[in-house]
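Reopening this one. Same input as before:
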Amino acid sequence: MKFIFEVRIKDGYQAEDYADAWLRASAIIQQAPGARGTELHRKLDDPKHLIAIARWDSKASRDAMESTPDPRVKQIIQSAAPFVEIRLLGEFDEPEWVVYPPEHQTS
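Same output, byte for byte:
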């Protein structure tokens, strides 16, 4: 499953500062059972608008990590919180099927 959220960087703060916090928190979170990686993307025409994606084996795995949060992660998130606005976009299952353009299909 994918946990996806939007991050908006407030004035006076840079996306690179948030990325540093993201990397530090992610390194800890990725040690949890079921964690499968994270991505942070910057919007092309707005460098203060990011999309964050965390991949998990299952919602249950992510919920288990959230139920016993690592205090180091909590501290990292709290230190970045005054400088960003975060909005959950949703939790998404892996697709039952994927549609690719013909040029990406293999025979």
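So the earlier flakiness isn't reproducible anymore. For the record, The first helix runs from residue 15 to 29.
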